[in-house]
Amino acid sequence: MANKLQTWSPLTCISPAPLSPSGLITLESPDEVETLVRNNIELRCEGSSPLPRPSSIPPSSSWNAIHDQLTIHITTHRIVLIDESLSIGGSIPLPLVVSSTTVGGPSFRSPKASYKISLLTHAWGELLLVFRGYQNSYTKSQKDRAEAYNSIKRAMQRQAWRNVERSAIKEAFRPSTAIAARKVGVDAIMTRNELRHRENARLAESAFSSVAAAGDPVNSNKNAMMQSTQISGGKKGRVADIDAFMGEAAELIKVIHKYVATIERERTSTAGVGGEGGSDNNTKDTDKLASMLQNMGMTSALSAKQSGSTYHTQLSRQLVDFLKYNNKLSKCGGMMTLTDVYCLFNRARGSNMISPEDLLKAVDIMKELNLGLSKRTFDSGIVVIQEDAFDDESMARQLADLALDSMKLLHRGSGGGITAMDVSRSLKISVLLANEHLMCVEQMGWICRDVTLEGVRFFPNLFVSGDYSSVFRSDAADVTTAAE
């Protein structure tokens, strides 16, 4: 793509960022979490001289210090910028960022000045992130710049990229790992699981006790001091802010993340009971904990608040990646109902589920994004997601051959023909989709139906092919074949 442009820009000079089939960023490690997405961003190089030209770009190409119309993805490890029209991406690793400051904005002399973030890096000097907002809205630009700057600042303070080795060491020295290492077979698995359940229960109890005591300053400070002594060996201020506490107890966050689903179910059950004071308190505690997790970047899939106006666009790309992973949609015949997609996708997201309305909006824009999948509505009203390469004529030929093979049973005393259940077993799809395929192929004239008291069976349409040899065969040939 860079060769076609015959130019290079700051986006092509920073570290390349691999993208998923739908154009989303690919996380480098399980510990990396995406925290913010905003669009209509510019990347500028503030140096007087151009950045070193990448080897993939010809020497005759020109330098462009500004690359606009980008989408920014901020994670706990990187700042990723994507040009969706060209399907290229670049990343700025946060360990290479020396400092980040906010600059620009409207003033008396420049009332239309843009909002910017200046990044001083080790590898590329000073880079500017310019926020254009939506339709030149300065209010939106200011909000996007503030949210992006806060996300970058929190990520640089946490330094999550340094926790990988620390987590591996802690995992190796966990009591459950050490004890289970001395055992083998099923006994080792059962011992490891039992000890981990005990450790998780202890961590969860300490976490919820601190949340419950958050309303009492005295108890909150007392619990913070006790946890600071137990976790960080008496060092002061370790649990003063939540980011430092997260850095010292990474396994605690994993336990809290597992408990979110349980708390959500409790909130749902108490929401139906009106007039009880305990319900309001539980709801406040749940909201507080969910907000804390979101601020710490513990959601693996972006929410509407994190991705802003591009939420449904990002959700549509996530759906495509999910359905293309391991050829999930191809194994289902290249088509899947919205009900099946909704259930499978929400199950994969865990507690961060989406609503049916969000799914419909995400599916509606798949065609516009040219992601290889699109929505299709059958005459019966059933809505499915299918691959753009899905060929109705190929499916018709496949079902017609299946119906033709069934005529062999007709000469052996069986009824012949195929049903929706037969197609479902043969193509490994749901009976609902099998019936829709049969109806479409019938309308195309490849097969015809026979309705009896036993149900509906479909036969090859001999009036179109004009080949009646599969039906009218001599009984002597059948007898000879049976004798052989």
UniProtKB/TrEMBL annotation:
PANTHER family, A to Z: VACUOLAR PROTEIN-SORTING-ASSOCIATED PROTEIN 36
Gene Ontology cellular component list: ESCRT II complex; late endosome membrane
UniProt keyword list: Coiled coil, Cytoplasm, Endosome, Protein transport, Transport
Function, as annotated: Component of the ESCRT-II complex (endosomal sorting complex required for transport II), which is required for multivesicular body (MVB) formation and sorting of endosomal cargo proteins into MVBs.
GO biological process: protein transport to vacuole involved in ubiquitin-dependent protein catabolic process via the multivesicular body sorting pathway
Any Pfam family: EAP30
Database matches in InterPro entries: Snf8/Vps36 (IPR040608), Vps36 (IPR037855), WH-like_DNA-bd_sf (IPR036388), WH_DNA-bd_sf (IPR036390)
Protein name as it appears in the record: Vacuolar protein-sorting-associated protein 36
One example GO MF annotation: phosphatidylinositol-3-phosphate binding
Subunit (UniProt): Component of the endosomal sorting complex required for transport II (ESCRT-II).
Domain of life: Eukaryota
Record keyword Protein transport present: yes
Family designation: Belongs to the VPS36 family.
Main location: cytoplasm
Source species: Cyclotella atomus
